[in-house]
Amino acid sequence: MKESIEQQSNSPAKKAAIPPYMKAVSGSLGGIVEASCLQPIDVIKTRLQLDRTGTYKGIIHCGATVSRTEGVRALWKGLTPFATHLTLKYALRMGSNAVLQTAFKDSETGKLSNRGRILAGFGAGVLEALAIVTPFEVVKIRLQQQKGLSPELLKYKGPIHCARMIVREEGLLGLWAGAAPTVMRNGTNQAAMFTAKNAFDVLLWKKHEGDGKVLQPWQSMISGFLAGTAGPVCTGPFDVVKTRLMAQSREGGNLKYKGMIHAIRTIYAEEGLLALWKGLLPRLMRIPPGQAIMWTVADQITGLYERRYIHNAPL
After folding, report:
1. Fewest C-beta atoms under 10 Å: which of 55, 92, 177, 221?
2. Total-model pTM
């Protein structure tokens, strides 16, 4: 009995972790703020990716053209599904990543290796892609690609109507068009993002999860911004292919793109290699700032919880 007590006292103590539900709450609140701020950039990105004729000369020209011909509110087209999508996506991403990280931690020391962090991030990205991202982005992209001022002339009248029309015309699986490149994009993105965010927190601010330290908002913004830069460059082709597959419908004939590999080959053959990175600049304008906003909100919520309920420090 005495030996067992001594063994327990000599074994490394496991740090108490922030529960997954708090990570989910922090992510969802961060998603609401992010969506409201950055929706116009997402609309411009989608229009540029779908532009095969050179209508738009660049980001500024695209935004100005949309505002002039369709009204300023057109830059917030698809905001309802986008905000809902981000809120649910970040809740699932942050919560599932916390659960997976717990599963990959060393059972004796409670420490998480870099390999475990990468796998947890990839798993969270795959889960969010299949459960939330794909159907919401299909609806969002169909709404964003519509051009015109008169609602009567638009095929889709709103998010619910759009979803119903897709299911009626293309079947339920129509809401999961482009699932394969979305899974690859999100899995890779989240593996890189969670790993990079932790690395930047440690490198720049000496912040370790569970140490009770709450980062200042500007510190979270810098770490989040830097962590959000690598993904778009690496996953550009997946994002372009995802957008093309989601935007096409069966109305009026056969589908141009038969799947992810066929789409990559077709775009490369018809438009050149650089076409696979169309919309990269607006993605870089949206994702890193979006991650900066989301992590600023999320870090404050989880940091305050950590101090109050884990370390019992005054707020």
Report:
1. 55
2. 0.78
Closest by Cα among 84, 85, 65, 83 to 75: 65
Q: What letters, b where the CB count within 10 A reaches 16 and e where it falls short, cover 34-51?
A: bbeebbbbbbbbbbbbbe
Going by C-beta distance under 8 Å and a sequence separation of 6 or more, which residues neighbour residue 43? 66, 74, 75, 76, 77, 78, 144
What is the identity of the amino acid at 312? N
Q: Report whether 101 contacts 197 (CB < 8 A).
A: no
**Paired tokens of 284:** 């870089």
pLDDT digits (tens, 9 = 90+) for 168-203: 999 999 999 999 999 999 999 999 999 999 999 999
